[in-house]
Protein backbone atom coordinates (compact mmCIF):
# COMPACT_ATOMS: atom_id res chain seq x y z
CA UNK A 1 0.00 0.00 0.00
CA UNK A 2 1.17 3.52 -0.76
CA UNK A 3 2.60 5.78 1.94
CA UNK A 4 0.42 8.53 3.41
CA UNK A 5 0.82 12.03 2.01
CA UNK A 6 0.47 15.23 4.04
CA UNK A 7 0.19 18.65 2.49
CA UNK A 8 -0.83 22.19 3.37
CA UNK A 9 -3.23 24.45 1.56
CA UNK A 10 -3.42 27.94 2.97
CA UNK A 11 -4.17 27.58 6.68
CA UNK A 12 -5.41 24.00 6.23
CA UNK A 13 -3.57 20.74 6.29
CA UNK A 14 -4.72 17.51 4.68
CA UNK A 15 -3.52 13.98 5.11
CA UNK A 16 -4.15 11.44 2.39
CA UNK A 17 -4.38 7.84 3.55
CA UNK A 18 -4.42 4.91 1.16
CA UNK A 19 -6.56 2.19 2.73
CA UNK A 20 -6.00 -1.54 2.47
CA UNK A 21 -9.57 -2.26 3.47
CA UNK A 22 -12.76 -0.24 2.82
CA UNK A 23 -14.05 -0.89 6.35
CA UNK A 24 -11.43 1.65 7.55
CA UNK A 25 -13.09 4.38 5.51
CA UNK A 26 -15.46 5.65 8.19
CA UNK A 27 -13.42 5.05 11.36
CA UNK A 28 -14.13 7.83 13.88
CA UNK A 29 -16.84 9.40 11.71
CA UNK A 30 -19.98 10.76 13.43
CA UNK A 31 -22.13 11.60 10.43
CA UNK A 32 -21.72 10.02 7.00
CA UNK A 33 -23.09 11.65 3.85
CA UNK A 34 -23.71 9.37 0.87
CA UNK A 35 -25.76 9.35 -2.30
CA UNK A 36 -28.04 6.53 -3.34
CA UNK A 37 -25.24 5.02 -5.48
CA UNK A 38 -22.55 5.10 -2.82
CA UNK A 39 -24.52 4.06 0.27
CA UNK A 40 -24.37 0.35 -0.72
CA UNK A 41 -20.57 0.54 -1.09
CA UNK A 42 -20.21 0.78 2.69
CA UNK A 43 -23.01 -1.57 3.69
CA UNK A 44 -21.48 -2.29 7.10
CA UNK A 45 -21.90 1.35 8.22
CA UNK A 46 -24.59 1.59 10.88
CA UNK A 47 -23.96 5.10 12.20
CA UNK A 48 -25.92 8.30 11.49
CA UNK A 49 -26.24 9.15 7.83
CA UNK A 50 -27.87 11.29 5.18
CA UNK A 51 -28.37 9.74 1.75
CA UNK A 52 -28.83 12.24 -1.08
CA UNK A 53 -30.41 11.32 -4.42
CA UNK A 54 -27.58 10.55 -6.87
CA UNK A 55 -26.87 13.14 -9.55
CA UNK A 56 -26.02 16.77 -10.24
CA UNK A 57 -29.55 17.96 -9.38
CA UNK A 58 -28.79 17.21 -5.71
CA UNK A 59 -26.17 19.95 -5.62
CA UNK A 60 -28.62 22.33 -3.97
CA UNK A 61 -29.28 24.28 -0.78
CA UNK A 62 -32.05 21.84 0.14
CA UNK A 63 -29.64 18.93 0.34
CA UNK A 64 -27.04 20.96 2.26
CA UNK A 65 -29.81 21.85 4.69
CA UNK A 66 -30.61 18.16 5.21
CA UNK A 67 -26.97 17.52 6.22
CA UNK A 68 -26.79 20.55 8.53
CA UNK A 69 -30.05 19.72 10.27
CA UNK A 70 -28.91 16.12 10.81
CA UNK A 71 -25.63 17.38 12.32
CA UNK A 72 -27.61 19.63 14.66
CA UNK A 73 -30.03 16.82 15.59
CA UNK A 74 -26.98 14.72 16.55
CA UNK A 75 -25.68 17.67 18.58
CA UNK A 76 -22.31 17.54 16.84
CA UNK A 77 -19.87 20.17 18.03
CA UNK A 78 -17.04 21.87 16.15
CA UNK A 79 -15.01 18.74 16.79
CA UNK A 80 -17.71 16.62 15.15
CA UNK A 81 -16.47 14.47 12.28
CA UNK A 82 -18.47 14.59 9.09
CA UNK A 83 -17.65 12.37 6.10
CA UNK A 84 -18.64 12.48 2.44
CA UNK A 85 -18.56 9.18 0.55
CA UNK A 86 -18.92 9.44 -3.19
CA UNK A 87 -17.96 11.06 -6.44
CA UNK A 88 -17.52 14.76 -7.14
CA UNK A 89 -21.08 15.80 -6.36
CA UNK A 90 -21.05 14.25 -2.88
CA UNK A 91 -17.52 15.34 -2.01
CA UNK A 92 -18.18 18.96 -3.08
CA UNK A 93 -21.43 19.05 -1.10
CA UNK A 94 -20.14 17.29 2.01
CA UNK A 95 -17.21 19.68 2.08
CA UNK A 96 -19.52 22.68 1.69
CA UNK A 97 -21.73 21.44 4.55
CA UNK A 98 -18.67 20.83 6.76
CA UNK A 99 -17.34 24.32 6.01
CA UNK A 100 -20.63 25.84 7.20
CA UNK A 101 -21.41 23.73 10.24
CA UNK A 102 -20.12 25.61 13.31
CA UNK A 103 -18.00 27.62 10.84
CA UNK A 104 -16.10 24.47 10.01
CA UNK A 105 -16.07 20.99 11.54
CA UNK A 106 -13.71 18.10 10.84
CA UNK A 107 -14.11 16.74 7.31
CA UNK A 108 -13.18 13.30 6.01
CA UNK A 109 -13.65 12.58 2.32
CA UNK A 110 -13.89 9.07 0.91
CA UNK A 111 -13.83 9.39 -2.88
CA UNK A 112 -15.37 6.41 -4.67
CA UNK A 113 -14.66 7.39 -8.29
CA UNK A 114 -11.37 7.93 -10.10
CA UNK A 115 -12.38 11.53 -10.83
CA UNK A 116 -13.02 12.25 -7.17
CA UNK A 117 -9.80 10.49 -6.05
CA UNK A 118 -7.49 12.49 -8.32
CA UNK A 119 -9.43 15.73 -8.57
CA UNK A 120 -12.81 16.55 -6.99
CA UNK A 121 -12.08 15.48 -3.40
CA UNK A 122 -8.72 17.18 -3.45
CA UNK A 123 -8.15 20.89 -3.43
CA UNK A 124 -10.74 22.35 -1.12
CA UNK A 125 -13.14 24.00 -3.57
CA UNK A 126 -16.61 23.15 -2.31
CA UNK A 127 -19.95 24.15 -3.66
CA UNK A 128 -23.44 23.78 -4.99
CA UNK A 129 -25.13 24.88 -8.20
CA UNK A 130 -27.20 28.04 -7.94
CA UNK A 131 -29.82 29.58 -10.26
CA UNK A 132 -28.53 27.56 -13.19
CA UNK A 133 -24.86 28.35 -12.53
CA UNK A 134 -22.63 25.37 -11.78
CA UNK A 135 -20.66 25.62 -8.52
CA UNK A 136 -21.58 29.29 -8.12
CA UNK A 137 -21.95 29.17 -4.34
CA UNK A 138 -19.24 27.58 -2.25
CA UNK A 139 -16.18 27.94 -0.10
CA UNK A 140 -12.57 26.83 0.19
CA UNK A 141 -12.48 24.00 2.71
CA UNK A 142 -10.04 21.11 2.20
CA UNK A 143 -10.66 17.80 3.96
CA UNK A 144 -8.63 17.11 7.06
CA UNK A 145 -8.36 13.54 5.78
CA UNK A 146 -8.78 11.95 2.40
CA UNK A 147 -9.19 8.18 2.64
CA UNK A 148 -8.60 6.40 -0.62
CA UNK A 149 -9.45 2.79 -1.28
CA UNK A 150 -8.52 2.08 -4.93
CA UNK A 151 -10.61 -1.11 -4.80
CA UNK A 152 -13.75 1.00 -5.32
CA UNK A 153 -12.62 1.48 -8.92
CA UNK A 154 -12.95 -2.20 -9.79
CA UNK A 155 -16.74 -1.92 -9.93
CA UNK A 156 -17.01 1.59 -11.35
CA UNK A 157 -19.01 1.72 -14.61
CA UNK A 158 -16.73 2.00 -17.64
CA UNK A 159 -17.80 5.51 -18.65
CA UNK A 160 -17.27 6.81 -15.11
CA UNK A 161 -13.82 5.22 -15.03
CA UNK A 162 -12.90 6.86 -18.33
CA UNK A 163 -14.30 10.17 -17.10
CA UNK A 164 -11.70 10.04 -14.33
CA UNK A 165 -8.99 9.08 -16.81
CA UNK A 166 -9.69 12.37 -18.61
CA UNK A 167 -8.56 14.32 -15.55
CA UNK A 168 -5.55 12.03 -15.16
CA UNK A 169 -4.53 12.76 -18.78
CA UNK A 170 -5.04 16.48 -18.14
CA UNK A 171 -2.81 16.30 -15.05
CA UNK A 172 -0.12 14.56 -17.12
CA UNK A 173 -0.26 17.27 -19.81
CA UNK A 174 0.40 19.88 -17.14
CA UNK A 175 3.92 18.52 -16.97
CA UNK A 176 4.15 15.20 -15.14
CA UNK A 177 6.32 13.22 -17.53
CA UNK A 178 6.27 9.98 -15.45
CA UNK A 179 2.48 10.05 -15.47
CA UNK A 180 2.49 10.77 -19.20
CA UNK A 181 4.82 7.79 -19.81
CA UNK A 182 2.60 5.57 -17.68
CA UNK A 183 -0.46 6.60 -19.73
CA UNK A 184 1.37 5.94 -23.01
CA UNK A 185 3.17 2.71 -22.05
CA UNK A 186 0.64 1.02 -19.77
CA UNK A 187 -2.60 1.79 -21.58
CA UNK A 188 -3.80 -1.83 -21.68
CA UNK A 189 -3.08 -2.38 -17.99
CA UNK A 190 -4.74 0.92 -17.06
CA UNK A 191 -7.87 0.14 -19.07
CA UNK A 192 -7.90 -3.37 -17.56
CA UNK A 193 -7.69 -1.66 -14.14
CA UNK A 194 -4.72 -3.73 -12.99
CA UNK A 195 -4.48 -2.81 -9.29
CA UNK A 196 -0.73 -2.06 -9.12
CA UNK A 197 -0.74 0.15 -12.19
CA UNK A 198 -3.92 1.87 -11.04
CA UNK A 199 -2.38 2.68 -7.65
CA UNK A 200 0.64 4.22 -9.33
CA UNK A 201 -1.61 6.19 -11.67
CA UNK A 202 -3.76 7.53 -8.81
CA UNK A 203 -0.73 8.45 -6.72
CA UNK A 204 1.04 10.31 -9.51
CA UNK A 205 -2.14 12.13 -10.58
CA UNK A 206 -2.85 13.16 -6.98
CA UNK A 207 0.67 14.53 -6.57
CA UNK A 208 0.22 16.81 -9.60
CA UNK A 209 -2.87 18.37 -8.09
CA UNK A 210 -1.30 18.57 -4.62
CA UNK A 211 1.55 20.59 -6.13
CA UNK A 212 -0.77 23.14 -7.74
CA UNK A 213 -2.95 23.42 -4.63
CA UNK A 214 0.02 23.85 -2.28
CA UNK A 215 1.54 26.56 -4.45
CA UNK A 216 -1.67 28.46 -5.26
CA UNK A 217 -4.52 27.37 -2.98
CA UNK A 218 -6.85 30.31 -3.72
CA UNK A 219 -6.32 30.15 -7.49
CA UNK A 220 -4.65 33.52 -7.88
CA UNK A 221 -2.37 32.20 -10.60
CA UNK A 222 -1.12 28.83 -11.79
CA UNK A 223 -3.88 26.74 -10.18
CA UNK A 224 -6.12 27.98 -13.01
CA UNK A 225 -4.06 25.76 -15.35
CA UNK A 226 -5.94 22.82 -13.82
CA UNK A 227 -8.92 24.20 -15.78
CA UNK A 228 -7.31 23.10 -19.07
CA UNK A 229 -10.17 21.91 -21.30
CA UNK A 230 -12.81 22.93 -18.77
CA UNK A 231 -14.01 26.24 -20.24
CA UNK A 232 -14.84 24.58 -23.56
CA UNK A 233 -15.91 21.38 -21.80
CA UNK A 234 -18.40 23.13 -19.49
CA UNK A 235 -19.96 24.83 -22.51
CA UNK A 236 -20.49 21.43 -24.13
CA UNK A 237 -21.94 19.99 -20.93
CA UNK A 238 -24.29 22.98 -20.63
CA UNK A 239 -25.47 22.71 -24.25
CA UNK A 240 -25.92 18.93 -23.86
CA UNK A 241 -28.02 19.70 -20.78
CA UNK A 242 -26.01 17.66 -18.22
CA UNK A 243 -28.13 14.74 -19.42
CA UNK A 244 -25.38 12.13 -19.29
CA UNK A 245 -24.85 12.11 -23.05
CA UNK A 246 -21.40 13.56 -22.31
CA UNK A 247 -19.67 12.69 -19.05
CA UNK A 248 -17.62 15.46 -17.45
CA UNK A 249 -14.41 13.75 -18.54
CA UNK A 250 -15.57 13.25 -22.12
CA UNK A 251 -16.48 16.94 -22.29
CA UNK A 252 -13.10 17.93 -20.78
CA UNK A 253 -11.24 15.87 -23.40
CA UNK A 254 -13.30 17.50 -26.16
CA UNK A 255 -12.43 20.81 -24.46
CA UNK A 256 -8.71 19.98 -24.44
CA UNK A 257 -9.00 19.34 -28.18
CA UNK A 258 -10.64 22.75 -28.62
CA UNK A 259 -8.02 24.48 -26.45
CA UNK A 260 -5.28 23.00 -28.64
CA UNK A 261 -7.14 24.09 -31.76
CA UNK A 262 -7.51 27.65 -30.44
CA UNK A 263 -3.84 27.66 -29.47
CA UNK A 264 -2.86 26.65 -33.01
CA UNK A 265 -5.12 29.37 -34.47
CA UNK A 266 -3.47 31.96 -32.23
CA UNK A 267 0.01 30.74 -33.22
CA UNK A 268 0.73 29.58 -29.66
CA UNK A 269 0.44 25.79 -29.84
CA UNK A 270 2.74 23.81 -32.14
CA UNK A 271 0.84 21.52 -34.53
CA UNK A 272 3.12 18.59 -33.57
CA UNK A 273 2.11 18.93 -29.91
CA UNK A 274 -1.56 19.19 -30.92
CA UNK A 275 -1.29 15.93 -32.92
CA UNK A 276 0.54 14.14 -30.09
CA UNK A 277 -2.11 15.04 -27.49
CA UNK A 278 -5.00 14.25 -29.85
CA UNK A 279 -3.57 10.81 -30.49
CA UNK A 280 -3.24 10.15 -26.73
CA UNK A 281 -6.87 11.20 -26.19
CA UNK A 282 -8.07 9.06 -29.11
CA UNK A 283 -6.07 6.06 -27.83
CA UNK A 284 -8.17 6.20 -24.64
CA UNK A 285 -11.38 6.25 -26.66
CA UNK A 286 -12.21 9.95 -26.24
CA UNK A 287 -13.92 11.71 -29.13
CA UNK A 288 -12.84 15.11 -30.33
CA UNK A 289 -15.97 15.99 -32.28
CA UNK A 290 -19.43 16.78 -30.91
CA UNK A 291 -21.67 16.24 -33.93
CA UNK A 292 -25.06 17.95 -34.15
CA UNK A 293 -24.09 20.68 -31.69
CA UNK A 294 -24.50 24.32 -32.71
CA UNK A 295 -21.36 26.49 -32.56
CA UNK A 296 -23.42 29.62 -31.70
CA UNK A 297 -25.13 27.86 -28.80
CA UNK A 298 -21.75 26.63 -27.55
CA UNK A 299 -20.37 30.19 -27.72
CA UNK A 300 -23.30 31.54 -25.68
CA UNK A 301 -22.86 28.80 -23.09
CA UNK A 302 -19.16 29.53 -22.93
CA UNK A 303 -19.76 33.22 -22.26
CA UNK A 304 -22.09 32.24 -19.45
CA UNK A 305 -19.15 30.54 -17.74
CA UNK A 306 -18.31 32.22 -14.46
CA UNK A 307 -14.54 32.08 -15.02
CA UNK A 308 -14.48 35.47 -16.68
CA UNK A 309 -11.99 38.21 -16.31
CA UNK A 310 -13.13 41.79 -16.93
CA UNK A 311 -16.08 40.43 -18.88
CA UNK A 312 -13.89 38.21 -21.08
CA UNK A 313 -13.55 34.47 -20.96
CA UNK A 314 -9.97 33.42 -20.17
CA UNK A 315 -8.82 30.24 -21.89
CA UNK A 316 -6.07 27.97 -20.59
CA UNK A 317 -3.93 27.09 -23.60
CA UNK A 318 -0.72 25.14 -24.00
CA UNK A 319 2.43 26.11 -25.82
CA UNK A 320 3.83 22.63 -25.21
CA UNK A 321 4.02 19.80 -22.68
CA UNK A 322 3.80 21.34 -19.19
CA UNK A 323 3.65 24.86 -20.64
CA UNK A 324 0.38 26.72 -20.06
CA UNK A 325 -0.87 30.25 -20.33
CA UNK A 326 -4.18 32.03 -19.94
CA UNK A 327 -5.48 34.33 -22.61
CA UNK A 328 -8.61 35.89 -24.06
CA UNK A 329 -9.60 35.50 -27.72
CA UNK A 330 -11.90 37.22 -30.22
CA UNK A 331 -15.39 35.78 -30.61
CA UNK A 332 -14.65 35.06 -34.28
CA UNK A 333 -11.65 32.89 -33.41
CA UNK A 334 -13.55 31.12 -30.65
CA UNK A 335 -16.51 30.50 -32.94
CA UNK A 336 -14.21 29.05 -35.62
CA UNK A 337 -12.62 26.81 -32.95
CA UNK A 338 -16.04 25.62 -31.81
CA UNK A 339 -17.18 25.02 -35.39
CA UNK A 340 -14.04 22.90 -35.91
CA UNK A 341 -15.10 20.64 -33.06
CA UNK A 342 -18.59 19.66 -34.18
N1 LIG B 1 -13.12 20.29 -5.31
C1 LIG B 1 -12.22 20.35 -6.38
C2 LIG B 1 -11.08 21.28 -6.18
O1 LIG B 1 -10.87 21.82 -5.13
O2 LIG B 1 -10.34 21.51 -7.12
Commentary on this structure:
The chain has 342 residues and is an alpha/beta fold. It folds into two domains: 5-215, Rossmann fold (3-Layer(aba) Sandwich); 228-339, Dehydroquinate synthase-like - alpha domain (Dehydroquinate synthase-like, alpha domain, Up-down Bundle), CATH 1.20.1090.10. It has twelve helices and 13 strands. Helix 2 links the parallel strand 5 (81-86) and strand 6. Bound molecules: glycine.
Distinctive features:
globular; seven-stranded mixed sheet; 2 domains; Dehydroquinate synthase-like, alpha domain; 12 helices; binds glycine; 342 residues; Rossmann fold; alpha/beta; single chain
Average predicted local confidence, pLDDT: 96
The fraction of residues assigned to DSSP E strands is 15-25%
Q: Give the class from helix and strand content and strand pairing.
A: alpha/beta
User: Radius of gyration, Cα only, in angstroms?
Assistant: 19 Å
Q: Could you give the count of β-strands? A: 13
Question: In CATH terms, what is the fold-level topology of the largest domain?
Answer: Rossmann fold
- How many separate structural domains? 2
Largest sheet properties: 7 strands, mixed
Helix content: 40-55%
Q: What is the string of helix and strand elements?
A: EEEEHEHEHEEEHHHHHHHHEEEEH
CATH architecture of the largest domain: 3-Layer(aba) Sandwich
Number of helices: 12
Strand arrangement, largest sheet?
Answer: 1-2-9-6-5-3-4
